[in-house]
Each structure stands twice: as C-alpha cells, then as structure tokens.
Amino acid sequence: xxxxxxxxxxxxxxxxxxxxxxxxxxxxxxxxxxxxxxxxxxxxxxxxxxxxxxxxxxxxxxxxxxxxxxxxxxxxxxxxxxxxxxxxxxxxxxxxxxxxxxxxxxxxxxxxxxxxxxxxxxxxxxxxxxxxxxxxxxxxxxxxxxxxxxxxxxxxxxxxxxxxxxxxxxxxxxxxxxxxxxxxxxxxxxxxxxxxxxxxxxxxxxxxxxxxxxxxxxxxxxxxxxxxxxxxxxxxxxxxxxxxxxxxxxxxxxxxxxxxxxxxxxxxxxxxxxxxxxxxxxxxxxxxxxxxxxxxxxxxxxxxxxxxxxxxxxxxxxxxxxxxxxxxxxxxxxxxxxxxxxxxxxxxxxxxxxxxxxxxxxxxxxxxxxxxxxxxxxxxxxxxxxxxxxxxxxxxxxxxxxxxxxxxxxxxxxxxxxxxxxxxxxxxxxxxxxxxxxxxxxxxxxxxxxxxxxxxxxxxxxxxxxxx
Length: 468
Hints:
It holds the Pfam family GCE_fung. This protein is of the alpha/beta class. The chain has a single domain, classed as Alpha/Beta hydrolase fold, catalytic domain (Rossmann fold), CATH 3.40.50.1820. It is 26% helix and 15% strand. It is built from 11 helices and 11 strands. Strands 1-7-8-9-11-10 form a 6-stranded mixed β-sheet, sandwiched between helices. Helix 5 packs across helix 6 (302-313).
C-alpha cells in the first residue's frame, strides 16, 4: 500500500496511582458498588441457569503461592492439551488446499467464535449518527493540531429507556496536506460527564520515565505518531459497553436486548467494542483529513483482547498492534500458564465473552473448545498483525498474559498466511527477550513488564513497510 494509512489503536493501560492512596469510599459509593456487584451476580446466575450450570471451577490465584489453585508459571506444565484444532481443515474433515477455499473455511471459524467465544452481533443493531461536540486548535508536543470531540448517538427509538452516546476524540496535525494515519485509543476521560481517573483507565498513558542517568525519557506514543505526520484518536469503550457484568443490560448490548438478559450466544463486551471501533471508521469515511480505507488497531491488556477481536471481525482494518492480550486474546486458550479460562469465566471478566463461554469453566474442559486463539489470528489474514508482550515473570512483570502462549498461537496461524501468499513468522523458536521476530505475523517481547510503551517504535517501524 503506497498511501498513508489511517491507524486506529485501542490502548488500555493500568493506572499508576496506588489504590492505597485513594480516599475511602463514601456510603453512597459503597452502595453503588454493592448494587453493581449484585447486578453482575444476577446476570451471571441467569446465564448459568440458561446453560444448566450449577457450579463454576474457581479461577487461578495469581497472588497466593500457597493456594491449591495458584497460577502456573512453569512452562513444563503449561501444554496439558497440546493438540490444537486444525485451522486448515473443514468441519467435514476435508483439507483446505488452495487460497480460493479459505473464505469458506474462514466462515466456519467465524461461526464457532460467534457461538462459543465472543457472541453474535445482532442483525438489528441501530444506526449511529456522529456530531462534533467540540472543535479546537491546540499545540501538542510543539506540533499544531486540530482536535475534534465527537459524539456518536445510537438510534434508541426502539427502546428510549437506554441511551448510548459513543465518545470519540480525533487529533490531526495541522500540517497535513493529505489524508493521514489515525491512531485511535480505546479509553480516555468521559468528556460529557468527567470522572476521576483510576483502575483500568485506558487511553494514552503518561510517558514512561527514563532510567536514572540514561538521558531523556522515551517519547510518548502521541509524540511518535505526530512526528510521523499521523493523527491519533481516543475511543471511550465504556460509552459503547460497560466493562462489567452489571452493564450487560445497558449499553449497546442492553439497548438491542431492550434491557433484558442475554441469550447464550449473544455478543459480549469485546465484540461490542469491536462494533464501536467499526462505527468510528464510518465517521472517518466522512472526514477528508483521514484515509479511512487504511485502518490499523492497537490495544494493551484487556484492550489488547479487544484489538485482536476488532481486527479479526472488521475487514476495513488493515493491521494491529496487539499488546499483552493474554487469555481471550492472542494466547492459546488450552494453556495452563498465567491467566486461564476459569479467570475469564469468573464474575470480573465473563462479560467480555458470549454466555456460552461459561461452559468451558464448568461442565466442559478446555480441550472441548472447538477453536483456539491461533484461529482468531488466522481470521486477520492476509492482513499483517504484530503480537507483543512483556517479560515473563511472576511479580510485576507480564507472566499473567503468557507471551510464549501468544507466540505459539501466532506461529500456528502461519499456515493460513502462507496459503494466502504472505509471510508467517520467521522462526518457530521462542526468541530471546528484546528480539524482533519479523513476518506478516510479527512478534516482540520486551523487558519492561505489563506495558505497551517499549514496543511502540518497533510496531511503527514495522508498519511503515506496509504503508509507504
């Protein structure tokens, strides 16, 4: 591709402030927290009842090494189910032997992900109408930019009790003389109803501090993007679908369901966020400052899960930087390393997935899954994808997201890229840390722990070769 690319990035970051520094919750806040917990439990109980589930297996405990269910970080104990589903074998057992057969096989894989993992997007999702909430010229990193705050109102005429207004902020360098890249971030503050930062705040985090005596701190992602002449944006996922189980009867999922509980194959939050990112592309198609035909997506942690799901499902996106996505993202689901299926089916995470996914943390085993993460990556083909993780260690690092498991999945998707005339990863041997593994499926593990910061420049350099 010779034109400049519009990059949409979904970036989630851990807040840097300690929970201990926050003031104690007020009685009103405590009441709200209890109400949300009760609503989450009611929703999860309803889904378990629909599925005939009475008990769930406990999640892995990542903090207490004496617990029977302590998280495994021993690679020799990880691959308890080593046989992955064959990505290039049709459901009837026939092999895919040529590129022309891939769309049919791809449709089979999408159906399984829809039914068992991420849920189906309804056919009757209402239309989104975008309007500019605020338009201003500013200076960012000494670069003049134009900033537009946008609101995408979802038509709720079918159920006025639920209102969904998607928030999107677009920042474009004033020097741009043609359509430029857009880097859209899942996250950011709610500009319609400001709230304090905390928890998984999302959006561009502050620049990382440099090591003492090591010179200036690394440039922020925004500065790197603007210096390339690209734009960036921030998409607030909570205004699409709340990141909790209590919100499943609200947001876009609740609006379509008219406030009722989900069915087992209804979409979860990850699929809803991907729908919201696709609606942002609708807006970019109306803005001549950006090239909406060339789109990439980036995300970190839970938003890394969202990034790979968005690329897999949205054909208008051209590439992705998937950072520390872990279970439910680019990590092999069958692996017993770090976060496992039972963590994703627990009350704090189940809302990301279809209700049917609960079965694999209860009545079914991981080996019963008809698909796995390598097939999610394969759905992105032939578009390039960059998989990233931090150092694997138990404490203050990135072992929870299982970088080796993500590398394994990226490699197992390789046959599809080869079939379609693209380059799989250049090695099947897990690389030394800080080593770039190139290919149309690329991988890099950095040493800085649970962050996407260190791999931004590597991703941008890698993406350049596709978009110059």
